[in-house]
């Protein structure tokens, strides 16, 4: 069975959706969190996974921070990383160790509305359609190769909250489905 880690910084709803997904061809062995007070940490205590809180403020630079994470990933024999609301750019230390093995989810139809508050960006732009993108992680911000996307209509009466709820409903289904597809395809090819 493939061994995987989830990286999260916030509430952990996408992390929870991954953990609760049935028939994933991997086991989630580790949660990596960069925020010591993040709600995802208490949620993760119910999962059969180790929690590794790694506060970047306690390291001299990004390389040292990522090296500490990489050491933990190697200890746990992690093969794949799934970002689920992890609010940090991944640097060369992890990218080089996990080429094409780090996935991210983003609440827009990339390349539109990359970066923070994609939902707010979509509402401000007055678009009629937003959505969800799952992509490989590269050195840029939400610029990696796109794996899957699904559109979500933006309604005239939408608020940040209502659009966020509808996007999250898609995320919680699409991310586990895409993870399963990618892992099965890689396994078939290898």
TrEMBL record:
Pathway: Purine metabolism; IMP biosynthesis via de novo pathway; N(2)-formyl-N(1)-(5-phospho-D-ribosyl)glycinamide from N(1)-(5-phospho-D-ribosyl)glycinamide (10-formyl THF route): step 1/1
Chemical reaction(s) catalysed: N(1)-(5-phospho-beta-D-ribosyl)glycinamide + (6R)-10-formyltetrahydrofolate = N(2)-formyl-N(1)-(5-phospho-beta-D-ribosyl)glycinamide + (6S)-5,6,7,8-tetrahydrofolate + H(+)
Residues holding (6R)-10-formyltetrahydrofolate: 62, 87-90, 104
Formyl transferase N-terminal domain: residues covered: 5-179
CDD domains assigned: FMT_core_GART
EC numbers: 2.1.2.2
Active-site residues (renumbered): 106 (proton donor)
Keywords: Purine biosynthesis, Transferase
Site (Raises pKa of active site His): 142
KW Nucleotide-binding (keyword) present: no
Classification via SUPFAM superfamilies: Formyltransferase
Origin: domain of life: Bacteria
InterPro entries: Formyl_transf_N (IPR002376), Formyl_transf_N_sf (IPR036477), GART (IPR004607), GART_AS (IPR001555)
Binding site for N(1)-(5-phospho-beta-D-ribosyl)glycinamide: 12-14
General function of this protein: Catalyzes the transfer of a formyl group from 10-formyltetrahydrofolate to 5-phospho-ribosyl-glycinamide (GAR), producing 5-phospho-ribosyl-N-formylglycinamide (FGAR) and tetrahydrofolate.
Family in the record: Belongs to the GART family.
Record's protein name: Phosphoribosylglycinamide formyltransferase
Organism ancestry: Bacteria, Bacillati, Bacillota, Bacilli, Bacillales
